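Request: Could I get any protein with tokenized structure?
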Amino acid sequence: MPARLTFLGTGTSVGVPVIGCDCAVCTSTDPRNRRTRSSIVIHTDDVTILVDTGPDLREQALREGLTSVDHVLYTHDHVDHVVGFDEIRAFCWRREDPMPLHGSLHTLNTLERMFPWAFGNTARNYVRPAPKQFDDFDEFEIGDVTVRALPVHHGVSPTHGFRFTLPGGKSIGYLPDVKVIPPESRSHLKGLDLLIIDALRDAPHSTHMSLAEALEAASELQPVQTALTHLTHDLDFVATSARLPSATFIATDGLTLDFSA
């Protein structure tokens, strides 16, 4: 079986449709304009890695038939990436050992502060976490996948993107929340098979790349393909896709990509 990546969610922090909004995208009948909060899952023969636990995790897992997770990897501690933490219980019920949670020290500390019942001597052990800290530029193995943690600028919270090297050598960069990619991080993101990058909207934003900024970054990094994620309701799937360069596409909820050796 080839390695697979599934986009569980491709939306911004409020999702699409936005509550109370009657814009053309929020009222669209095109399912490609429905965007739950951003997350991916990577499957290989050896391991299943979930990246982030947003507020839509239960819905996403049921939609995709996701019944088991071996490791959880966190980009940062913003609510739209961590607040579905409690849904990890369903995956813990199907395993004997604690669930490895990979994150920066800042993110792991936030998780423990937000969900104290799951950590320490007083834990009721519904989630049974096994925190595993990584530092900037650390490279580590999760099953047969090599992960490198790449610091990026996104507001005040320490935030990381990841470079995944899959069995067989295919490479994926995942940067769902980013405004600026520092030079040393960029050096690990050149020539990827797939770059997944934040492209919030057309208008500039203080903590996210705009569509133009994301396309500029992709042009410099020269991946084989680029997928745009973390999109607001300002970007209609069909209209925006028509403006994109070749080998660049909008990621949609439920999209699965196979990576053969």
Summary: The first helix runs from residue 57 to 64. The two ends are 10 Å apart (CA to CA). The mean pLDDT is 95. Residues 196 and 227 are 5 Å apart (CA to CA).
